[in-house]
């Protein structure tokens, strides 16, 4: 595991401030938004569709703390772009938007350095003010929207109206306790990690923040490599993964095959109270990955030799299957959901940090073994043979 101190070059003007919102392209935006509200504690915050004068694409925006997710679907037959995206990827994250200062300058710099500008800076406006946006192409079919919202007081973006319907059930459910997006992870195909990391370094002036290699991230069966890139202020963190050769198909390879290429693998949401969050989310019916009790036996043993003191009750953490990673200075608590659609692609993480800026490398082995058990149940923990032909294990 490596942490980096060199933040590299800083933009002369403008900056990336934080994650703004994530846009999912899905088959049925209304139902997807309802799942995130019911299972994860989000609330409807804005809407755009036929009733607001938008004729081609419907978008339901949900919010929790500072986290904003947009679920969009095509309204008409024959929407080639959204239709082909759905055929190829299934439901997934189309766009990861950043709140920025000086959208024009950041886009100009990215273009000069070789980034593909999908949409040049443009201004959206309604009675609540103006927002400037632009879109850059990143890995796979994923894009980054840059959002400069210095002069806007509306619900979300110009053109969005209040939700048509507020589900009365939501007010009766316990809080999800999720505060902000901690990191967004992108899975890449074989040998694609470093070129993608370099894209962020070159075009957005992000820097390497943390990394792990496949020696540290392997189970008996599969392995992966990961490099985290961050903006100068380290408020936006994007781990980039690639599969490494193992005895069987890596979970990253499984993702890439089902997503049809590179894409967002998981979104980690930060909480200041993971125990209450997970009690509540489980009560709401959210499904999480499960590690065996032997994980906690090993953890208790390892903690005996550590300087760090976990303030939470380990029995409670074990009962909820929350994972712990630590070093001498601090620790993090984390848990992962099962995939949130039928394809084994996107899943979610809930994370609480106590003076620890890692990503849970100490948990990867236990977590991967749990993921591999599910992967095996899906018939995808296949044996890799030297000529690349795989067969069912
Ligand atoms: Fe994560």
TrEMBL record:
One of its GO terms (cellular component) is endoplasmic reticulum membrane. The keyword Secreted does not apply. This is 4-hydroxyphenylpyruvate dioxygenase. Pfam families: Glyoxalase (PF00903). PROSITE patterns: VOC. GO terms for biological process: L-phenylalanine catabolic process; L-tyrosine catabolic process. Catalyzes the conversion of 4-hydroxyphenylpyruvic acid to homogentisic acid, one of the steps in tyrosine catabolism. Its cofactor is Fe cation. Transmembrane segments: none annotated. It comes from the Eukaryota. Pathway: Amino-acid degradation; L-phenylalanine degradation; acetoacetate and fumarate from L-phenylalanine: step 3/6. One of its GO terms (molecular function) is 4-hydroxyphenylpyruvate dioxygenase activity. Gene3D superfamilies: 2,3-Dihydroxybiphenyl 1,2-Dioxygenase, domain 1. Residues 18-149, 180-338 form the VOC domain. Its main location: cytoplasm. Belongs to the 4HPPD family. It is a peripheral membrane protein. Keywords: Acetylation, Cytoplasm, Endoplasmic reticulum, Golgi apparatus, Iron, Membrane, Metal-binding, Oxidoreductase, Phenylalanine catabolism, Phosphoprotein, Repeat, Tyrosine catabolism. It comes from Gadus morhua. Binds 1 Fe cation per subunit. It is found in: Cytoplasm; Endoplasmic reticulum membrane; Golgi apparatus membrane.
């Amino acid at each position: 595991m490596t942490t980096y101190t060199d933040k590299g070059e800083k933009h002369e003007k403008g900056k990336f401030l934080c994650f703004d919102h994530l846009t999912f392209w899905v088959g049925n935006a209304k139902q997807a938004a309802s799942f995130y509200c019911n299972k994860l504690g989000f609330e409807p915050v804005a809407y755009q569709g036929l009733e607001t004068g938008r004729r081609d694409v419907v978008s339901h925006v949900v919010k929790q703390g500072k986290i904003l997710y947009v679920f969009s679907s095509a309204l008409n037959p024959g929407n080639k772009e959204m239709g082909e995206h759905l055929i190829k990827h299934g439901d997934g994250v189309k766009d990861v938007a950043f709140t920025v200062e000086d959208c024009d300058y950041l886009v100009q710099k990215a273009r000069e350095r070789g980034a593909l500008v999908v949409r040049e800076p443009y201004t959206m406006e309604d009675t609540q003010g103006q927002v400037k946006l632009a879109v850059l192409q990143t890995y796979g079919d994923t894009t980054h929207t840059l959002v400069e919202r210095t002069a806007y007081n509306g619900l979300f973006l110009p053109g969005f109206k209040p939700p048509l319907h507020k589900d009365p059930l939501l007010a009766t459910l316990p809080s999800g306790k999720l505060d902000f997006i901690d990191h967004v992870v992108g899975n890449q195909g074989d040998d694609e990690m470093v070129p993608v990391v370099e894209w962020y370094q070159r075009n957005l002036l992000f820097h390497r923040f943390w990394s792990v290699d496949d020696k540290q991230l392997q189970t008996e069966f599969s392995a992966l490599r990961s490099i985290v890139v961050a903006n100068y202020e380290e408020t936006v963190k994007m781990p980039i993964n690639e599969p490494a050769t193992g005895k069987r198909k890596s979970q990253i390879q499984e993702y890439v095959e089902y997503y049809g290429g590179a894409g967002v693998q998981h979104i980690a949401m930060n909480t200041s109270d993971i125990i209450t969050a997970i009690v509540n989310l489980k009560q709401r019916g959210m499904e999480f990955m499960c590690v065996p009790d032997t994980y906690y036996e090993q953890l208790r043993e390892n903690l005996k030799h550590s300087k760090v003191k976990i303030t939470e009750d380990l029995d409670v953490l074990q009962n909820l299957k929350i994972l712990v990673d630590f070093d001498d200075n601090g620790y993090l608590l984390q848990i992962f959901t099962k995939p949130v659609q039928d394809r084994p692609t996107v899943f979610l993480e809930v994370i609480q940090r106590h003076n620890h800026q890692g990503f849970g490398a100490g948990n990867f082995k236990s977590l991967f073994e749990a993921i591999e058990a599910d992967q095996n149940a899906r018939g995808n923990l296949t044996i890799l043979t030297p000529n690349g032909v795989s067969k069912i294990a």
